Amino acid sequence: MSVTFEVKGPVGWITLARPEAMNALERGMVDRMTAKLVEWRDDPQVRVVVLTGTGRAFSAGADLKQASAPAAPGEMDFLDAIVVFFNTLRAFPRPVIAAVNGLALAGGLEAVMACDFVIAAQSARFGDAHSNFGVFPGGGGAALLPRKVPINVAKYMLFTGDSLPAEDMKTYGLVSEVVADAELQARAQAIGEKLAAKSPLVLTRMKRVADEAADKPLADALRHEVLELRNHQRSYDIQEGLRAFVEKRKPEFQGY
């Protein structure tokens, strides 16, 4: 299997498993990951998703042997399919963690940027790499990288095609935490379980407001936050959280 899926407690794991090809994204992988995200989106037991890889790469990006293959009439081509995957990953209603185990290049970097935050192994490296092959990014490389790191850093990565180490990317703001290689999966699972203990409803609403805030004037973003709060005040979870606080116990959130 070129990609595997496993649910560990409340955490759904997507693991890219083409180590011999540096986990390059091919059509079957992309379609299966999109389908699994849609399935998990409707599964209240999966409260967090982790995306990771095997071997020395998280992902080296799209399989260029497939990138220019024509689609059958009436069907999506590979670019369409990979954009649908990135959009589905980005729009997943609950937290998505990138656990970056090695090289994250081109489409691999774009997949990382579609996640909510990034835990990286010490040996991980990040690069755009499209310019190395005369390829233009289509999954957010040029559009999103300047929103994730300072624009001069983004342009350096885009123009040179060079990769930068995890510690540098933490300094620039793309990576939230760097851990020893051997600790990556355990740390991602632990963070996933920590998030899963929160109200899934409040995390979904926080994610929606945070994702949309950058594209709104401040006043509109603040109005959106108040509207979400008004809706949230009608929820079971906020009442459960307040009861648990008063009763000095751990809340048991239900997600509604």
Computed over alpha carbons, the radius of gyration is 19 Å
The percent of residues in helical segments reads: 40-55%
CATH level 3 topology of the largest domain: 2-enoyl-CoA Hydratase, Chain A, domain 1
Give the ordered list of helices and strands: EEHEEHHEEHEEHHEHEHHHH
Distance between the termini: 36 Å
Quick one: overall form? Answer: globular
Detail the poorly predicted runs.
none
Q: What is the average of the pLDDT values?
A: 95
Notes on the structure:
α5 packs antiparallel against α6. The protein has a 6-stranded mixed beta sheet, sandwiched between helices. A 4-stranded mixed beta sheet has the order 4-6-8-9. The protein has 11 helices and 10 strands. With 256 residues, it is of the alpha/beta class. The protein has helices at 27-41, 64-67, 78-90, 107-113, 141-148, 151-160, 166-172, 184-196, 200-213, 218-232, 236-247, and strands spanning 3-8, 11-16, 48-53, 57-59, 96-100, 103-105, 117-121, 125-127, 163-165, 177-179. The model has no long low-confidence stretch (mean pLDDT 95). It has 2 domains: 3-196, 2-enoyl-CoA Hydratase, Chain A, domain 1 (Alpha-Beta Complex); 200-247.
